[in-house]
Design goal:
The protein is α/β, with parallel strands linked by helices. It contains eleven helices and five strands. 57% of the residues lie in helices and 11% in strands.
């Protein structure tokens, strides 16, 4: 399709031509924002080059935002969590500087693992999802899953002769986030299949896990001592370990809210 070209377009005709061109070129942000940017350009006395740069950067910024949103959605996080919303004052076991360093995602670039170890309610899952979200926003492919869900998927894939394909799919993402590792005992087959995923990713792509058990207690999840040791080795070599502690700040927050009406009434 060729658009009609003529000099001396009226403002209305120019707007219609811009709208049509943006649709053809698939530039939705410029189409939506052009009028406001044009008015601002007149007010700020922008040069033609400055005006063009503003238009193009608007489109680029919006495309980057949409890509981030798609990556976050593809990660499969169960809920939204951010580092900004994490209360570091409520859990002094977690060093804010360490976490913000992790948010730069250099550890993912270097294919290093991350382990978040602590009791329920200490912020492990929040931190896991928040750091995974940061990675997705920076352009990394991320996948979140519960440990039991991953093992069940691997078992089903093995039964259907699709194991290699499934392991390869989990091997391709830049960061694999495995939550609730250690909550349930895994049989030998399930543990071995999980080990295959970790081996596929070793020193090639990062794994981040959250567990309510210290490494010493992992023998309750992985009952074969040698396999357990091998899995711990895969998840800790050149990695970062953050111990979130034993005191549930989530429970403490709930208790504090429950006490507020009683204090108000006194």
């Amino acid at each position: 399709m060729t658009l009609p070209r003529q000099r001396g377009l009226t403002e209305q005709a120019a707007d219609a031509a811009i709208d049509t061109a943006c649709r053809l070129l698939r530039l939705p942000s410029i189409r939506n924002e052009f009028s406001d940017i044009a008015d601002r350009a007149v007010k700020d006395q922008m040069t033609y080059r400055g005006f063009l740069a503003e238009l193009l950067m608007t489109e680029c910024d919006d495309r980057a935002r949409r890509r981030s949103e798609r990556r976050i959605k593809a990660a499969g996080f169960p809920r939204e969590k951010s580092l900004r919303a994490f209360d570091f004052d409520a859990n002094t076991n977690i060093d804010a500087a360490t976490v913000h360093t992790l948010a730069s995602c250099e550890w993912i670039k270097k294919s290093q693992p991350l382990c978040l170890i602590g009791d329920s309610g200490t912020g492990k899952s929040h931190m896991l999802i928040a750091l995974g979200t940061e990675a997705a926003m920076k352009g990394y492919r991320v996948r979140y899953t519960l440990a039991t869900k991953l093992v069940n998927e691997l078992v089903e894939a093995a039964d259907e002769k699709q194991l290699n394909k499934t392991i390869a799919r989990y091997g391709r993402v830049d960061l694999l986030c495995i939550d609730e590792l250690g909550y349930m005992e895994l049989d030998r087959r399930g543990a071995e299949l999980l080990f295959q995923v970790l081996t596929e990713r070793e020193e090639k792509n990062s794994v981040a896990i959250a567990s309510n058990e210290s490494f010493g207690g992992w023998t309750k999840t992985f009952t074969d001592p040698r396999l357990c040791a091998a899995i711990v080795d895969r998840l800790t070599f050149n990695g970062t370990i953050i111990e979130t502690g034993t005191d549930s700040y989530r429970l403490a927050s709930t208790r504090a809210r429950a006490d507020e009406p009683a204090k108000t009434g006194t």
